[in-house]
Amino acid sequence: MTETTTDPEIDALIAREAQRRATTLQLIASETPASPAVRAALASDLGAKYAEGYPGARYHGGCEVVDEIEQLAVDRAATLFGADDVNVQPLSGSAANLAVYAAFAQPGDPVLALHLHHGGHQTHGSRANFSGRWFTGIHYNVRESDERIDYDELRELALVHRPRIIVAGGAAYSRFIDFAALRAIADDADAILWVDAAHLAGLVAGGVAPSPVPYADVVTLATHKVLRGPRGGMILAREAHRAALRKAVHPFVQGGSSMNSIAAKAVCMRESGTAEFAEYTATTVSLAQRLCSDLVEGGLRIVSGGTDTHLAVVDVSGIGLTGIEAQRRLAAAGIVVDKAVLPYDSEPVTSGSAIRVGTSSSVLAGLGVDDAPVIADAMMRALREPVGAAQHAGIRARIADLLDR
Ligand code: DSN
To answer: Which domains does the chain have, with CATH numbers?
Structure first.
């Protein structure tokens, strides 16, 4: 068979996407470009190898090399995060989360998690997801006054509902979480403490956020949000939960994992322990914090008054916009963000009153804390003009210039 080396249509689209990324500012909190070494592992022939099971106990032949690769990924992750047990097979963060339910809960069991609109995640008991359909999602909130987790309410809900699992973490909560307080609540309620560190894991690896590992029974993470690995998931756990989680990932949730992705995760774990990675995470957080203060100076409000992490939820209702309209205006000016909802938002989820911004991609594109005023100014000017306004072209050119430098 003749091997094809190009696909003109797809190649052209890949080139267009590269051009889009290079000329617009990526402020999507869950996207971070992977390093060339991670991408090389992803593109390798390992993608063709089937290796159901675990190193040393596979359902396929010829696994001697991939066994070493998987063990290396596990060992590196265990060292990086100080975890007893690591499972590198989950195909995504959501698949890792499904495995946690499979390991610790039965259908119908109550699970207590941060409300989706207050910064949680759809796999934390939302009705639109398996987690809310097959389990009983009970939700704690942030306080209306300061938009931070209400640990008193959390404790009360835990003691009343006796959830099988208490979940911490999410996709849009920008403040550090008091893992010690959660451990105490989980112990009192006799619940499993699961921390979904999909966003946080990179900051933990970089040493700029507290680690949930000493407190949680189980921690799930995505390897591609602030971490710069492949799209995928991972589970860190206490030794006592090793067997249950292994069975939950394979064969309960998945068949064979992607060995190319596991190799890329190994690369990512090595990179994430370097001083350079620590510096990248520190700059990412400082840029997010500086961007928040500059946006406040520009007239916007930040949920909870700021951020401890790489992401922030920015309230745009004060300037008369919905989240979706803000997303569109910024996109017209070459600034890419996600619409978001505020805790206690009166707008429907489809529009929201906020945007979520994250700074990891910008730092990797070469921007630093000193660029925050320029970014904030560009955002404020873009937000004031309707889509189609001539001013957006000027802002877009300025953003492209900034990235070019
Ligand atoms: N899509 C992810 C995010 O943007 O945070 C959540 O799964």
So the answer is: 38-271 (3.40.640.10), 275-404 (3.90.1150.10)
